[in-house]
Amino acid sequence: MKSCLPLEDSQELLLSSIKPLLSETITLEEAPGRVLAADIFAPHDLPPYPQAALDGFAIPREGKRGSPLSVKRILGAGDLPGHPLGPGEAAGVLTGGHIPPGTAAVVRQEDAMVKDGILTIDKDLTVGENIRDQGEDFPAGAVIARRGTRITPGLSAVLAAFGFQEISVFRRPRVAIVNLGKEIAPHQATPLPGQVRDSNGPLLAALTRRTGGQVVAIHYARTKTEKQIGELLMEADVVLTIGGTASGNNDPGHHFIERVGGRPLFAGYQVKPGSHTSAGILDGRIILMLSGNPVPCAVGYHLLAAPVLRALQGLNPYLHRIPAVATNSFPKRGGPRRFLLGYALGSHQGWRVAVLPFQKPSNLHSLIDYNCLIDLPAGHPPLQLGDEVKIILLENA
Amino acid sequence: MKSCLPLEDSQELLLSSIKPLLSETITLEEAPGRVLAADIFAPHDLPPYPQAALDGFAIPREGKRGSPLSVKRILGAGDLPGHPLGPGEAAGVLTGGHIPPGTAAVVRQEDAMVKDGILTIDKDLTVGENIRDQGEDFPAGAVIARRGTRITPGLSAVLAAFGFQEISVFRRPRVAIVNLGKEIAPHQATPLPGQVRDSNGPLLAALTRRTGGQVVAIHYARTKTEKQIGELLMEADVVLTIGGTASGNNDPGHHFIERVGGRPLFAGYQVKPGSHTSAGILDGRIILMLSGNPVPCAVGYHLLAAPVLRALQGLNPYLHRIPAVATNSFPKRGGPRRFLLGYALGSHQGWRVAVLPFQKPSNLHSLIDYNCLIDLPAGHPPLQLGDEVKIILLENA
To answer: Cβ separation of B250 and A77 shorter than 8 Å?
Structure first.
C-alpha cells in the first residue's frame, strides 16, 4: 500500500483498477443523461428521400416568374411521386412530403397562384430552393454519436427520428455509503446526547445521483457489525465510507479495508483538506474512505469518487481545470496542495471565482453554493484579490 | 390577440398570466433539484455547543508548551462536560464532542503526551485553537436559503444536519405534449408511407424534465379528436403543441386554441426560426404552439416554454444572456431577430461560441451538441469569425 500519494497518482491508481461497467439496454425515454455504450451510425439517409421544405408546388427547371405551368397532380400526405414532372408541369406538394423526380425547386403556396389548374409563379426561385436533399441531415452510415457520449435531449430526438427503440448504455454505478463514526445517526432520527445527525450521507447520495450513479444504501456502523457491512458492500460497485480516517480513539481507522477483505490501494494523499483519505479494492469494487468532516468529504468526492463514477460509465473521468481570477482573498498559505470550495462565474473577461466563506473542514455553510474547486498548489502564498488560480468547474456548475 | 410581438413582449405576456404552482411537501431524499417554496432559517445554533475540532485535550488559558496539566476526566462520545476546567486541569475530548467550560484551546493528541495522568503539551497554542464555537456555522435564526432556491446536494446536507424531514417545494409543472400534424406517428411505430416518426415529442419531453417539469403524456392528433385532446389537456399545467403553426393545407392552424376553448395570447413573434409560434391560455393553463420543424421547436422551447416552466416552479424565469466571441461564421443576414444553435465554451479570454452546422429548420443534426442560443439582432449582417455576439447559456451547458 502506498502512502501520501500526489493527487494525480492516487487518481491514476484508482482508475487503473477499473473499467467501464457492462452495458444494458434501455428505452429511448430513459436515455437522456445516460452514456452510450456503442457508436451509433445512421441506418439510412435522413431525409430518406428528397422532400418539399414547405407546402407549395414542385416546379421544373423551366418554371419561372410569370410563366404558367399546368398543375396535373396534388401529392397528399404519404403519396408517392411516381413519374417525373413532365414539360411545363407543376405538382402540389406538402412539407416533408415527396417531390416528383425532375423537380428543380418548390414554390411556396403564398408565392404562386392557381386558377383553373394553371399555376403562375410570383417570385424568382433558385435551383434547389425549398428542397430538402436526401441525406442532407445524415447520410446513411454517418456517425450519429460515439460510445462514451452522454445522451442529450437533442440526441434522443435524433435517435427517435431514426426509430431506435432500445439504446445500449453503460450500467449506472451502484454506490453504497457507510458512516463509520459510531456517533453518527441517520438524519431522520432524533439524535441522543453525543450523537450527530448524518449530513454527509445525504450529501454523497445527492452528488452520486448527479454524477449518474445510483445509491443502493446508506449504512451506519452504529447499528451494523463490520461483517454485516462487508456483506452489504457486495451489492455495490463503489463503496464510500465516511469518517474513520483520522487517528483518534473513536475511529476504526483505514484498516477497515483489510478487515472487510479488501486490498488497500493507498492511505492518504497530498491534498488538504482530507489528507487522510484512503482507498482500496475488493473483488473489483472500489472502496473510498472519505473524511467525516463535510468540506473534505465533498472535496474527496469530487477529486476521487466522481472520476471513478464517470469512468465506470464510460465517460472521460476528469472535468476541465481552467484559469480564473479570484474576486476575494484567502489568508492561509500552503502546506500541501489545497482545494477550496468556490463559486465561479463566466464573465466577459473570463472566469471569476469567489472563495466561499466558512472553509473550516467542519463547516457546512460553503456547501450550499459551491460550484467549483479552487486548486492552490503546495506552498502557495495567501490568495489575494486579482490573483489567477486554477479551478475545476463541477457538473451542473 | 396580438400578432408578431417582440420576443420580450411575448415572454412578459406569458409570464404575467401565471404564478408559481402550489407547494407540496417532499422528503429530504427527493429534495435535490427541487425549488424551495419557503425561506428556511436555522432552528438552532450549529454547532449547538462549543465542540472540539479534533481528538485531544481541552486545556485552560494557563496551559502552554512544557507546563504540565492534570488530566482528571476523559469525555467520551456523548458525555456532557459538567463543571468547568479547574486550575491546572486538562480533559480528554473527542472530535465534535463537548468541551468543558473554561476551555481555552484543544491540543491535538499527537501534540501532547500523557503519563500517569499528567499531560505535557508539545506545541504552542493560541486561544480558541481547535475549538468550534457554538453557532459559528449557522447561528439560530440565520437564513439558510430563500424561497425560490434550487436545492443543491450541499443544501440538502445542511437541511439534514438540522433534522429537516419534510421540505416544502413548489410542485413540478405537469406538461402535456401534443403533435398536431396528422402525418406524425409515435417514434415507436413503424411509419406508414407518408408518415414521419415523432422526434420533437422526445425532444420536448427530455427538455421539460431537465427544466424540472414532469411529462404527463405525448398525444397525437392522428389518433385523437380535438375534443379528446381538449379533455386530456385538463390534466396539465402547460400544453406544448408541435406543428400546425404554418399556414399550409395540412395544418390545423393557431385557431386550435379557440377550438379547445382557450383564449389566444399572441399569434407569432418577431423571432426566426419559429415566427409562427403562438400561445394561449385555458383555465390558467398555458398553451404554447411550437413549430413542427426541429430547430424552431427547440428554440421556441428555450425562449418561451422554459421561462414558463421555471416561473411555475418559483425560479427566475430567465437565463443569463452574456457576450461571447464567434469562432466561425454564418452567412445569412437579418431579417428578424434570429437565434442560432451554438456550442459555447468558457475560456481564459471569456466565452467563445461556435455556430453549429446544419441550421436549416428541418435539420436535426445541430440538436445533438448545442448548449446555447446565439441571439442575433434584427437586421444583423452576416456573422464573421471574431464578432462579438450575445448568447443564452442553457441549463446543463
So the answer is: yes
Interface of B with A in 183-242 (CB under 8 A): 183, 187-188, 190-203, 205-207, 209-210
* Whether residue A235 is found in the same domain as residue A182: yes
Range of the domain at A153: 24-45+136-170
**B310-356 pLDDT per residue, tens:** 999 999 999 989 999 999 999 999 899 999 999 999 877 889 999 99
User: Is B239 found in the same domain as B193?
Assistant: yes
Chain B residues with CB under 8 Å of A296 CB are none
Search chain A and give the residue with CA nearest B51.
A362
Helix/strand/coil percent split, chain B, to 5? 20, 35, 50
Sign of CA dihedral A131, A135, A136, A138: positive
Residues B213 and B286 occupy one common structural domain: yes
The set of cell numbers assigned to A69 is 405551368
d(CA A169, CA A187): 34
Helix (H, G, I), strand (E, B) or coil at A227: helix
- Interface confidence, given as ipTM, is 0.93
Mark whether A301 and A335 lie in a shared domain: no
Facing residue for A199 by CB, picked from B160, B165, B187: B160
Q: Does one domain contain both B382 and B360?
A: yes
From the CA of B90, how many Å to the nearest CA of chain A? 17
Q: Check whether residue B118 and residue B251 sit in a common domain.
A: no
Are B365 and A298 a contacting pair at CB < 8 A? Answer: no
Residues B37 and B76 placed together within one structural domain of the fold: no
Total structural domains within chain B: 4
pLDDT tens digit sequence for A220-253:
988 888 888 888 788 999 999 999 755 444 444 5
User: Cα–Cα–Cα angle for B317, B323, B325, nearest 5°?
Assistant: 140
Nearest CA in chain A to B299: A154
Kindly determine whether residue A161 and residue B187, on different chains, have CB atoms separated by under 8 Å: yes
Residues B86 and B178 in one domain: no
